[in-house]
Amino acid sequence: MVKHLGIIAVSFEGATLCYRTFCEEAMALTGSLSHPEVSVHNHSLKEYMDCIEKDDWDGVATLMVSSAKKLAAAGADFAVCPDNTVHRVYEKVAKQSPIPVLSIIDVVAEECKRRGYRKVGVLGTKYTMQGPMYRDALARLKIEMAVPDRKDQDKVNSVIFNELVPEGVTKSSVKALTDIVQKLKQAGCDSVILGCTELPLVLNKANSPLPVVDSTRLLASKALEHALK
Q1: CB-CB contact of 128 with 134 (8 Å)
Q2: Which of 1, 31, 120, 171 has its CA 20 to 30 A from that of 57?
Q3: Using an 8 Å Cβ cutoff, are 69 and 98 in contact?
Q4: How many domains are there within the chain?
């Protein structure tokens, strides 16, 4: 039975890219206009950010579980959340959700292992770069994690929230992020995780100094695989 996908959306750009990739890959696979059923629910990004900025991670989990319940009521068999930052509360959400929720962090870490990476740079919001999610997941697979220095972390965070989310891609954001990836390369990284679902709008295998691990598209691919099992 083909499964109905639910998307717990946080930012609209990340959710849109995940949704589009899921449908495009399904149609390419079937050679037709066919793709599994998809439902999307999101609370306002501001509601999430209000909780995150107050360090209220229980509030973040409550929002995510609320979306999961609404997706389940709409008929979704399982869900994904194309947002890395909020995966800080993934375990709590997975326990409270009425439907299974795939982890973007685990999907990305397993891909790094599959590709044989040993030292991986991580870009994302400051909450992702400074948080334990990727560090713990990669460490379990014997992979070292590196992040930019605090000045560059602030720059990445600013590009995400002040440019990519409200405005889209700019030439300045491309230059800033590729320069930061170059520094990670010089620090011995063999790849870089695009650990924010907006970052694939800016960085890709064509312009990145390091091989990219695209968290958004990987999650969409894993969701498709799960939907077709």
Answers
A1: yes
A2: 120
A3: yes
A4: 2
Do 221 and 194 reside in the same domain of the chain? no
Query: What confidence category does residue 140 fall into, taking pLDDT thresholds of 50, 70 and 90?
Result: very high
Instruction: Please list the alpha-helical segments (H only) found in 131-187.
Output: 133-140, 150-159, 171-186
| Contact partners, residue 75, CB within 8 Å, separation at least 6 | 4, 37, 39
Indicate whether 151 and 170 sit together in one domain: yes
Token pair recorded at residue 65: 């579980």
Q: What is residue 167's predicted lDDT score, i.e. its pLDDT?
A: 65
For the chain, what is the total number of helices (H) and then of strands (E)? 10, 8
Q: Provide the token pair at 15.
A: 């959710």
Amino acid at position 34, single letter? S
- What pLDDT sits at residue 165? 72
The residue range of the domain holding 117 is 105-214
Residue type at 206? A
